[in-house]
Amino acid sequence: MWIDTHCHWDAPEFAEDRDAVLARARAVGVQTLVVPSVQARDFQSTQALCRAAGLPYALGIHPLYTPQSVEADLALLERALAEAVDDPLLVAVGEMGLDYFVTGLDAERQQFFYLEQLKLARKFDLPVILHVRRSADQLLAGLRRLPVSGGIAHAFNGSAQQAGAFIEQGFALGFGGALTFERALQIRRLAAELPETALVLETDAPDIPPHWLYKTAEQRAAGERSRNEPCELPRIAQTLASLRGWSLEQTAVISSCNARRVLPGLAAFAS
Hints:
Blueprint: E1 2-4, H1 18-27, E2 30-33, E3 35-36, H2 43-53, E4 57-59, H3 71-83, E5 90-99, H4 107-123, E6 128-133, H5 136-145, E7 151-154, H6 160-168, E8 171-175, H7 185-193, E9 199-201, H8 217-221, H9 233-244, H10 248-262
Parallel strand pairs: 1-2, 3-4, 4-5, 5-6, 6-7, 7-8, 8-9
Protein name: TatD family hydrolase
Keywords: Hydrolase, Metal-binding
Family: Belongs to the metallo-dependent hydrolases superfamily. TatD-type hydrolase family.
């Protein structure tokens, strides 16, 4: 019924109960979840976990991991994509992109890894899953220079104009836990007003918790933790349904159809 288009199910935070996390998601109708890798050393383990569970995955180098990545990692990515070219579970290149929010990252280095991964997506005719954090215009510039076959702008929080530019490039925009905060006015406005064909749902679990899981800085300092899970997707979707005036069933159908359109490999996971 539901597709979580962005879930780091392979993350260490799920090491102790990974199977139970997946079982809880499926129990509430999350049909499948897309698992994007974040660094070269995880490619094989992410693939192995996803193949064992029958989950779709993506391979890529996250911008936050570019400081410890080396150029040889791009060769590893190219080899991994080539070896998985006939794997029906491989659905995209990612998570990749640019992050100009986190301080201390080398912008030029990020750009290098971003553009090289766009080239690989073009070579293997795969869509991409983009990390977009205060970087929409720069990402769009790269896409105009090296167009790919669409994909998802994950956790989108840009302007309506930037959203339209991604849509023109064949992208859908990912909405998740941030949507559930009443003060997230721009995100909610976009979710309510963008064409329905542009919307996909995601959790980014274990990150970006919805408001009911969020812990304040004081709570975190006191040792309290919150871990997002893919089973939260239907409740997150209820916010989108309310904003659009849709039923929950409509929201599931529309968002899942959009996910399958921009990540064609998900067609194998049709309900």
